[in-house]
Amino acid sequence: MLITVIRTGGFAGGERTASLETECRPDGPALERLAERALADEGPVGRDLVPDAFGYVVHIDGKVVDLQDPYLTEAQQQLVDAVLAEAA
Question: The pTM is what?
Fold first, then answer.
């Protein structure tokens, strides 16, 4: 499973992109389950944009979800953190 996260916004307004392929990773199955939960979870309805917050576009095997801080579910936050850590 290929997971890509594009983070935009924040105080500096920059963009950061990171990807990971779960296939050959020892933690791959756990990341795949986390990705499935992140896709299934929905944040609060009627979300207002928060100034200087991060926005995320998450691509998971052809599916795309748009997320916004501070409205990420626990699974979504864990997934975003795990993928962005790959680029660090």
Answer: 0.87
